[in-house]
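Query form — protein SIS domain-containing protein

QUESTION: What is the three-dimensional structure of this chain?
INPUT:
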Amino acid sequence: MTSSEVRPGEFMAAEIAEQPAVLAGLVERRADIAAVASAIAERPPRFALLAARGSSDHAALYAKYLIEVLLGLPAGLVSPSTVTLYGARPDLRDVLLVSVSQSGGSPDLIEVTEAARKQGALTVSVSNTPSSPLHSAAELAVDIGAGKENAVAATKTYSATLMALYLLIDAVRGGDGADAANIGELAERTLRDAEEGVRRATDRYRFVDRVITTGRGYSYATALESALKLAETSYLAARAYSGADLLHGPVAAIDGETAVLAVTGAGRGGSAMHDVLDAVTDRGADVLAVGSSSDDVPAALRIPVPVVAEELAPVLEVLPVQRLALGLSLARGGDPDRPRGLKKETKTR
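ANSWER: The C-alpha cells for SIS domain-containing protein are given below.
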C-alpha cells in the first residue's frame, strides 16, 4: 500500500489497537526480563540513573517512581548533555544505569551508556530494536517486543516500555509479575469501554487552544505523555504539571478557557489530586478526568479505567488518551501518522 492510499491516522489507530496483544506478549516473555533482573540483583546498586528522551523520558520517570517506591533506592534522571557536551565522567561504581529508547539509535543515549559502563555502572538498555547500537553499548538488554511502529507518535512502544520496566523492577524486588498477569485483557477492556468517553471528549475539545495535563505519583508520567501526544498530533498548546506543582503558581493562569486533563487513579497519587481539582474547578476550568477514580472528582467529562495495582495504572491510563489524541488530530484536519516537522527517529547529542 502506498502512502497516498493510507488514510490519515490509519497507522496510529492500528497500533493503538495492537496494545492488548503486545502487553500480553510481554507478560508471556517475563522469564527473559527476569533473567536480566537476576543479573541486576546479583550486583545490588547503591542507586539508579535513567537516561531517555521524548516519550521514553516519561517512561523513565515512571521507572524512577518504581525504583524508589518498590526497591527503596534513590533514582534520578540523567541529563545526557553533561556527558555529550560537557564531557563529565562521574564515578558510577555500584550504580545502575537504565537507558530507555524505542529506536535505540539516539547518539546521546549511546554515548551516555558507553561512558557510564566505562565509569563502572551496570548498564541496561530497554529498547524496541534488539539490533540497535544502544543494546550493543549496554551490558544487559531488555527487548520490549512491540514490533514495527509506523506512526510517528509512539503508542504501543510507549505502553510496552512501561510494561517492560515494571516487569524488570518487579523481578528485581523478587516479584512474580502476578499483578500484571491479565494486563492484556484489562487493556482490551480499557480501549473498548473508553470509546464513548473519547468520542464525547473529542467533540468537546476539538476547538480548544490550551490544555493543561496533570497527575501525581506514578500517574505524573501519564500527564507528561498526554501533553506530548496532544501537542505532536493536534498541535495544541499542551503543558503538563505535577498536581503539586500546579498549585505552586501555574494554577493562576487557569480560567474558563482552559481544558484540564486530569489523571486520577485509585491509590495515593489519585487521592492527592482531589485538592488540585477542587482548585482548578473553582477557577472555571473544564476538566476531563481519566482513571480508575475519575467518578470521584469534579469533572465535566470522565473516562474510567479498570482498577489495578497503583504502580501498574499508567499502562492502562494512557490508552484512552492516545485515542483522544488520534480523534482530536483527525477532527482538526490533521494526520497523526505524519505530524508536521517530525520524524519517527530523532537523533540528538
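ADDITIONAL NOTE: The mean pLDDT is 94.
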